[in-house]
Design goal:
Largest sheet: 6 strands, mixed
Helix content: 25-40%
Order of helices and strands: EEEHEHHEHEHHEHEHHHEHEE
Structural class: alpha/beta
Number of helices: 11
Strand order of the largest sheet: 8-7-9-6-10-11
Distance between the termini: 40 Å
Radius of gyration: 22 Å
Number of strands: 11
Strand content: 15-25%
Length: 377
């Protein structure tokens, strides 16, 4: 379980007047920005805008990791004291907002801390950016490269800087060898198989693929750590490879496959027949969810990026084998390339295929290999 810091603020130019909020989510251990959000909300009071900022910040943190512990830092004494339960909520406009904020995370998962305004400058800047955008009649958009592409509200981030391959060396990279799990019975039938379905194990063909990958990786050498999705097909693949390498396996829930909701177990054609509108929206918009409350590509990207960053922090300068699924592998590749989410539909990734990404200390990434299946013969 991770720990996040949420810094939130809101303001009104007139009180009441044109109002907006801003919030930022940070990793509590590193201070790294994991998400930013801001919005112009029309005419409102300062207190309403502050509560709206709190709610938005908590929701952004929940999108990254719903099991996280959260510390909220705000310069609003009113919101901090009311949400901590020390002050009564007397104003009728505040009660529903406080209740909404309290429902985002389970009871006891969120702590509140008052900070002076000068220590809340990031959230304050976002709130003012949102109000400025509202005055221009535009939606708020994050600054280029303000947060990693996976975490930015805008699904089409600005181009990333050139990879290290086109510039001077920047230290020792952390290298991810991305191994898709071996084949399952559902793989052969081309059915949606995510984290919300039956959790199938490898088929005999898939087990043979895992063993072939293990032999190839052992022969190549260099793997220093193994991390895996906890789903059965990845666990089996990872355990076969790790046993051959003589390494333990660390399980990372953030590397799990997307939850495909009501589409689990169906073929693409069956989904197209039963849920055509939902499928069309999912293909067109990375924020759209599958039928029945599955995960959007935006939500998957947030948790995959967080899992990536945690793994890099644990293994700086090392080579890590990450055993995972189609969507996480494609997500890591397109983030490394600075490509839009729709690029994932143009990637072909076979069972037990290897891909490789190097993450450099200066923040750049280099894709070195994609969909390598030579070890499968």
């Amino acid at each position: 379980m991770g720990e996040f810091i949420v810094e939130a603020d809101g303001g009104s130019r007139g009180n009441p007047g044109p109002a907006g909020y801003g919030a930022v989510v940070r990793d509590a251990a590193t201070g790294q920005v994991l998400a930013e959000t801001a919005e112009f909300i029309g005419t409102a009071t300062n207190n309403v805008a502050e509560y709206r900022g709190l709610i938005a910040g908590l929701r952004a943190a929940h999108d990254v990791d719903p099991g996280a512990a959260v510390r909220v830092r705000m310069d609003s004494k009113l919101v901090v004291e009311q949400m901590s339960g020390r002050w009564k909520i007397k104003h009728p406009d505040m009660r529903p907002l406080a209740m909404e904020a309290g429902r985002v995370f389970p009871s006891g998962a969120v702590r509140y801390e008052w900070i002076p305004r000068e220590r809340n400058k990031h959230a304050d800047r976002l709130a003012n950016e949102a109000m400025d955008a509202g005055r221009r009649g535009e939606p708020w958009r994050p600054r280029p490269q303000a947060v990693p592409p996976a975490l930015a509200p805008d699904p089409d981030p600005d181009p990333a800087p050139p990879s290290t391959g086109w510039s001077a060396a920047a230290g020792t990279p952390t290298t991810f060898l991305l191994l898709r799990h071996g084949e399952t019975p559902l793989t052969a039938q081309k059915r949606f198989s995510g984290s919300g379905g039956d959790d199938p194990d490898l088929s005999p063909a898939g087990l043979a693929q895992a063993e072939a990958a293990a032999e190839a990786l052992a022969a190549a050498g260099g793997v220093e750590a193994v991390v895996s999705s906890p789903l059965t097909r990845c666990r089996t693949t990872a355990e076969v490879v790790a046993a051959r390498l003589g390494l333990p396996v660390r399980y990372e829930p953030g590397l799990s496959e997307a939850d495909f909701g009501a589409w689990e177990g169906l073929t693409f054609a069956e989904v197209q027949q039963r849920h055509p509108d939902d499928l069309a929206a999912w293909l067109a918009n990375p924020g759209a969810k599958p039928t029945g409350g599955g995960e959007s590509f935006t939500a998957v990207a947030r948790r995959v990026a967080l899992a990536r960053d945690k793994t890099i922090a644990r293994n700086p300068g090392r080579t890590v084998l990450a055993v995972t699924h189609v969507t996480p592998v494609k997500t890591l590749l397109r983030l490394a390339l600075g490509a839009p989410p729709q690029s994932m539909f143009r990637m072909e990734l076979g069972p037990a295929a290897l891909s490789e990404v190097a993450y450099w200390p200066d923040g750049n990434a280099s894709v070195r290999r994609f969909n390598d299946t030579a070890h499968l013969g």
